[in-house]
Design goal:
This protein is α/β, with parallel strands linked by helices and about 675 residues long. The chain has five domains: about 1-120 and about 160-200, 2-enoyl-CoA Hydratase, Chain A, domain 1, CATH 3.90.226; about 125-155 and about 205-265, no CATH class; about 300-480, Rossmann fold; about 485-500 and about 590-615 and about 620-684, N-(1-d-carboxylethyl)-l-norvaline Dehydrogenase, domain 2 (Orthogonal Bundle); about 520-585, Orthogonal Bundle (N-(1-d-carboxylethyl)-l-norvaline Dehydrogenase, domain 2), CATH 1.10.1040.10. It is built from 30 helices and 18 strands. The two termini are about 40 Å apart. Bound molecules: 3-hydroxybutanoyl-coenzyme A and 1,4-dihydronicotinamide adenine dinucleotide.
Length: about 675
Amino acid sequence: MTNLLTYQVYENVAVVTIDSPPVNALGIDVRQSIVEGFKRASADVNVQAIVLACDGRTFFAGADIREFGSKPKSPILPEVIAFIESSPKLTIAALHGTPLGGGLETALACHYRIALAGTRMGLPEVNLGLLPGAGGTQKLPRLVGIPAALEIITSGRQIKADEALKLGIIDRVCESDNIVASAISYAKELVDQNATRTLVLDRNEKTAEHRGKSEVYDAFRAKNARRFRGFKSVENIIKAIQLAADLPYEQGLKRERELFTELQQSRDSSAQQHVFFAERESSKVPDIPRTTPVRPIDAVGIIGAGTMGGGIAMNFLNAGIPVTLIEQKQEALDHGISIIRKNYQRSVKAGRMTEEALEARITLITPSLDYADLASVDLIIEAVFETMEIKKEVFSSIDAVAKPGCILASNTSYLDLDEIAGATSRPQDVIGLHFFSPANVMNLLEVVRGEHSAPEVINTGMRLAKIIGKTPVLSKVGWGFIANRVMKVRGYQTDNLILQGINPEIIDKVIYDYGFAMGPIAMKDLVGLDVLGRDSNERTVESVLVDMGRLGQKKNGGYYDYDQNRQKTLSPLALEVIREVAKEKGIEPVLADEAEILARLLYPIINEGAKVLDEGIAMRSSDIDIACIKGYNWPVYKGGPMFWANSIGLDRVLKKLEEFEQRFGSAFTPSPYLVRLVEEGKEF
Ligand code: 3HC
Ligand code: NAI
């Protein structure tokens, strides 16, 4: 017997329990242990039913993702599942925690499923660029029907036990906190009743009504086209679910495996697996052990109820943490709160929130014009104008009122955090908490480590991110920190390409086709041309457009003209302005195909990422990937700029940068770190 398996018999019920921390992922040892347990139970003449359970925090949370790169060892998961299904005894899966992916597929091999209240189950393989490859696409539709299966598997969402019961995925929710004891009683009950032993794979009544109806899948594709764009896994999932209705189980299962293997070997899936681990890695700080104390954050103060302050406040309100919101004038305060209310009202309208929940959140806000009201909070986040003098004034004022141990944070985008901290008597308590706009939506939180930030202050910032549903990335102090700094270079190159006569529509198309939701020029129009050039006196295409009253989507159009339905067409006026400004600056037109446009826009980001690593601003290249994915919606199936660079080959990236440096100058000068990596044959 392997040491992962505990085998116990209670009268006529055998309990096969697996314990493989942290999440009972279905690696080779776990798979062998399940088979071993089932073999023993099957051979035991006194046993009439087998309960499959896990120790620790969860029932199997899926296949072991770390095994995906290597040759699979027998018994592979489909073999284990077939073995469970061939059991001569009644089988019951006892679920708790997060039975996900292969874990849920294993549970679906049993005749019955019972779950602890609070269990969250699902088939999240889509998030790894995969599909459920151990029968999930063939079995879930047999339990919940085609439309629900399409929604559940393409979204990868977690389903709570009560909903799973209603949908028919499980047979019982156990209210006691002892899932194994409840599963044993349930097993006895089923044996006593001589309950049927129908396997999920033999149920066809729910899929029958959609047999041969390809229009159902086409309608689903069309309805979700925007959301699914670029995700190859979604297309294979839809195909596999259709097979569940159209083919006998065994044939559907065989095709599911082929569709799974195709995805498993794809670059997109490798990228998404990289992101899965990168996301978990980003919260770890090598020189700050996990045992470092964390300061409790039970009340927060936010200064500035503008664009960012309001959005930041919503994160805390959503987590049930009270917020004291400070402004300079009553009107600004009222306006800020009205925007927060409006945002929540949108959720109420969409059915994602109740009126009561909205009111409960608003009640958590204490509006104030007086810094003295911050005396009892545990964390203060400053989100006032991006001006050093104002920030210093604010920090010196909060230093005077904040209690000892209160964490003082700035949301500055570009300013020197150490200089800001210098305005206080306690730089050890100062950090950056840099949110991304809209702050209630974007998942990135850059935690900025000042020269004097105390380890427990940094640790608190990193842990806090999780409480408010963000992914933290640690950055040292430096202009623009990580995400803004590396992404800014795309902005410069966009402007250069425009002035060199490259059609703005083609630039947008190249970026959209790569997988971003929007091209950089359409994005300028959306943000507002007046906002972009605010701090500069230089005559640029944008400043001329603003002088002409063209502010972007919000007023008169910008680079594009917009009709009533916000459909855009390139503006002849804007093209005229581009030509004029290019002439004034003496910029000659160039020719570039789409591949070259893409390289000119995105390779400098890789290069800037290399500089950020070399300077120690970011701890690891995967943190830069996470910052770009979570802060700028870099397409997740490309893995972020640094992973993407590795997959192109750093030597090829370097060669292209050198060529661009020759042609266009120092903006493309390769980072010495990148050069070194190529010389040493290494990757990021
Ligand atoms: N394989 C390998 N390692 C895994 C894993 C998996 N399926 N799931 C989690 N882990 C590891 C994490 O990397 C982490 O390791 P670390 O401590 O070294 O960083 C550790 O387990 C704990 O994970 P989290 O920090 O994420 O813990 P949480 O409690 O926040 O979340 C969880 C737990 C909900 C299970 C979450 O880890 C998760 O969503 N895991 C992935 C689940 C999944 O995608 N399953 C499907 C796998 S693909 C599959 O099954 C294919 C099949 O259809 C054939
Ligand atoms: P904003 O102009 O929308 O809001 C700033 C608010 O601060 C205003 O309501 C103003 O009345 C208030 N304010 C100014 N001085 C104050 C004081 N002394 N006391 C109290 N309130 C004061 O600006 P926004 O966009 O919210 O930016 C705030 C900060 O967040 C800046 O540092 C900015 O760089 C940073 N940031 C902005 C992002 C964005 O996309 N807008 C993204 C990430 C960070």
